[in-house]
## 1
Amino acid sequence: MIDKKLKILISNDDSIYSRGIKCLVEIAKQFGEVTVVAPNRPQSAKGHSITLTEPLRLKKKDLFGPEVVAYACSGTPVDCVKIAMDKILDEQPDLCLSGINHGSNTSINVVYSGTMGAAMEAAIDGVPSIGFSDVNYDEEGDLSVCKKYVPIIIEQFLKFDKAKSRLINVNFPSIDVGKIKGIKICRQSIAMWKEDFQEKEDPYGGKYYWLLGQFKSDDIGEGTDVHAIKNGFISVVPVKFDLTSHEDIDYLNKEWNINEKVG
Amino acid sequence: MIDKKLKILISNDDSIYSRGIKCLVEIAKQFGEVTVVAPNRPQSAKGHSITLTEPLRLKKKDLFGPEVVAYACSGTPVDCVKIAMDKILDEQPDLCLSGINHGSNTSINVVYSGTMGAAMEAAIDGVPSIGFSDVNYDEEGDLSVCKKYVPIIIEQFLKFDKAKSRLINVNFPSIDVGKIKGIKICRQSIAMWKEDFQEKEDPYGGKYYWLLGQFKSDDIGEGTDVHAIKNGFISVVPVKFDLTSHEDIDYLNKEWNINEKVG
């Protein structure tokens, strides 16, 4: 266990009332002083969205016992981290935890995920951060795997706090805790959701569309997070927010006739 | 100019009624058959957010002349691209253009940007995509730089359509067109927005908070998009949606005692 009493910020995207965040808070209490700022309603798939055209509201909540300061926020997961940093915490936290999300954030889901949005926002601010997701979408599902392995992963993450990697995306497979084969450091599987909207008609004859999609990937081999989960491992992907495709800079410099086109 | 009549999808985040998208549509018409699906209201800073808890609505619009099929959509920029792909276009487009955004999408803004969210969504689906932004936030600002250089950049991008780089983030400096020094292939500057919420009180005594922030960066040297813009260049950053920090995988594999912790 860690000596220092850590200051830990917790958020999520399933709302402050979800079972996943309650489980995460209970675990985090062992590591330090916990502050929770989380959405006041489900905010799944909000990605890195922030709220500019409306103000935010905060409401203090007694949900996690007297030692946990907790606020429900009217904004997105990223808004929650931003307002926590500016208005609630006295100093920058030592650690940010987000989740535990109900549903997978492996592969391309990381781009859409509000859970990872919150963790990434804290990481952008320089706070070591972990996003946790249980690939089981059932909000009443068994959290035994999380209960056992979240503390192990937090300990590993903190032990090497000089690591270059300050943001990790952790996904737990939906299997019995006894069947977990281990933890794998992975890369994000390259994939997409092939959209397939469901068309409906309202009573006035207007059409509306529900977003649905199918997960498509050919990149599910060893080394990917999708492969790890499928084979009974917990996946850990180090994540960055420099989206530059560095390997393409030389290529574009060479191939683009940019100089002759100017003037 | 390109021989083939291209099928081009256009979206943005400032809404279908913005001057930026009108300018982009006029330019894109020279390159092929244009379809527009864009938000019916401003959707700035929506990142890669999608809409799961409400259905989407589409409304056909005659805004860009009879040859341009255009729909206003009730969703986010990413929703617009998704519904275009599934419900409006007969086949996958050859090119997706997003913008022209009013305001900078250099540096960390790429993570929050709805403009880049739309472009990235198309790129995830395998469509070569460009996000365009004018760093001038003035919605009535001069678009002469865009008018001159957007066609040049589209031509370059299409000429090398076997390039590995299928998604670029283009920003135009806010200077007179005659003062543009050139186009620079750049990397995303590492930066953050230091949040600074404005607190207000409603007539009932309740507090609410407006998100404000200050751009902070020590990474503004040569090679960054911020440096290019500041020095009168158009910045072009190749962007990817594999967020894996690949360089950290070996490190974590070596340093984490993951095997001894299982069982």
## 2
Amino acid sequence: MSRSINLAVIPGDGIGQEVVAEGLKVLSAVLPQDVKLETQEYDFGARRYHATGETLTDADLDALKQHDAILLGAIGDPGVPSGVLERGFLLKLRFAFDHHVNLRPSKLLPGVATPLAGQPEIDFVVVREGTEGPYTGNGGTIRKGTAHEVATEVSVNTAFGVERVVRDAFARAQARPRKKLTLVHKNNVLTFAGHLWTNIFNKVAEEYPDVTTDYIHVDAATIYLVTDPGRFDVIVTDNLFGDIITDLAAAVSGGIGVAASGNINPSREFPSMFEPVHGSAPDIAGQGKADPTATVLSVALLLRHLGHEAEAARIEDAVSADLAERGDLPARSTSDIGDALAARVAG
Amino acid sequence: MSRSINLAVIPGDGIGQEVVAEGLKVLSAVLPQDVKLETQEYDFGARRYHATGETLTDADLDALKQHDAILLGAIGDPGVPSGVLERGFLLKLRFAFDHHVNLRPSKLLPGVATPLAGQPEIDFVVVREGTEGPYTGNGGTIRKGTAHEVATEVSVNTAFGVERVVRDAFARAQARPRKKLTLVHKNNVLTFAGHLWTNIFNKVAEEYPDVTTDYIHVDAATIYLVTDPGRFDVIVTDNLFGDIITDLAAAVSGGIGVAASGNINPSREFPSMFEPVHGSAPDIAGQGKADPTATVLSVALLLRHLGHEAEAARIEDAVSADLAERGDLPARSTSDIGDALAARVAG
Ligand SMILES: CC(C)[C@H](C(=O)O)[C@@H](O)C(=O)O
Ligand SMILES: CC(C)[C@H](C(=O)O)[C@@H](O)C(=O)O
């Protein structure tokens, strides 16, 4: 547990600016007096891309490396071609800083609306691999724009990359009361990658006899996420499957307004990055309508990663209490919600 | 509209046997006297694989080619390693017969239970590409079983393959009252394949000015499928994304007990294949517990493909009427449901 936190702050685009301000408000409020918080803001995202054509330079990476962690709002703007900021900034950062554990908890808190009937119990964590799979950018295009164009995408999976994230997931499952880990893949079709994942999963499982394991195809997993989400405790999965099922998981457990994530480098060789699962939502940006809760919960993950477990739990409790009362309150602005959460964690 | 139907029947494994029997029962009942139905049963699946090691030979393909269409139950058995029957039979057939339009309608019928709150209106069709993408089996493994294993999966996408399925989807959208087509992909990350899909989609859209189009990332699509499924009319998407979202679509629109599919070769160069979306469900096989409705609805798709629109509609109406009354009935066996549907379509 560090007595100082040197934080890189990347508000980014759209509502990113608004929600990050509230995240920092709650962070300042929760930290004990003797923990020194330093923040440095970076102007990455669409604005900088439009102004300079740059997304993330080597010098930027060097600067970010000096921090203990990164808090990110959201990156993306309709004026930038699809893929430019995603590949040029967000994925570049995840890969450069080897964020191989993409952690996405889903918990349906009391009082929170879900599209599912019968208010099921939902409390699981997805450990999404963050540096391999179809996200590597391998592949290419020939005869572009012609009737004979061929475009490929190569999913790259290594024993090294799979084993470390599978181990991380087993350790997380073992630390939870239900001790259950589900591998989600599509090993009946993607047999090369699927067998690698399945074999490593089964091998590591032998070291965790107290963890119950199972395997589900990704297509079937989407069914269970809506018909029986309570069956999941910890899920480990590949980068793309993780992307897909965590959006669905967010949807059923309160919506992307409350879905937090951590892009974690467990070795701490590079700073980890914490961000809400939602995007920059340009349609509601600048209006104080965005819910900062996902960012505030991402701050909790950040604190836990840096060893401030008590403060992380205080934030999560504050969010639970706030959400439980929301039904009775008139709609609040982004900063009203931030103020309320800051007051609770300070109190 | 043919005056005879020469059908290949592949009951397959597990509940496949039971549901196909009911599908044939309803098919016989619905056909007019003057349409001659010939069926030939093929013993593909786990039993044959265990007995002979064969999944689908060239001679099998030659035999199947002689038929007008194929009705498939389900293939798969826990005793066969994952991937063997999927790649060696089901996908081999889809690829050999160039089933590039994998058609999967989702309609929430009155009286049918859904895991979603508020019984939303759901009536859309997914046109899933069936012969490309990550399903091609391209890829491989090096240093298998070692700490340095690398496994790749190559998604192959061609202008030829994408354009024909996109055109099929536009034509289907144009023929529906709402005339709306949504492209689902992940073009912000899978930029090579994503741009190919997006460019072709936009190009073909110019020929269909009366069709409203939009684009949604696959991760976001899973959110809309549970929060606002009514926004979808026709969806066109890649093989793997289609696999994933159609299981979710089935789950929200009545479950895989009623989800039908067609693996269609629109040129009719080879026979098309119709099958329920569900698997062989070995846990309930042989007990008369399986719901044959998905197979019966697949028979309707088969009839429509062969030009028997009136009979297809009669089956769909019978299923709607049967489902609407289910809530009031005690649980029925597989064959009871088949009998009830056969009586309705004959009546
Ligand atoms: C914006 C996009 C590149 C990103 C992803 O696909 O990982 C997002 O969907 C997410 O889940 O964080
Ligand atoms: C069994 C499997 C190969 C198949 C697929 O992935 O296409 C199934 O999930 C389906 O959707 O028909």
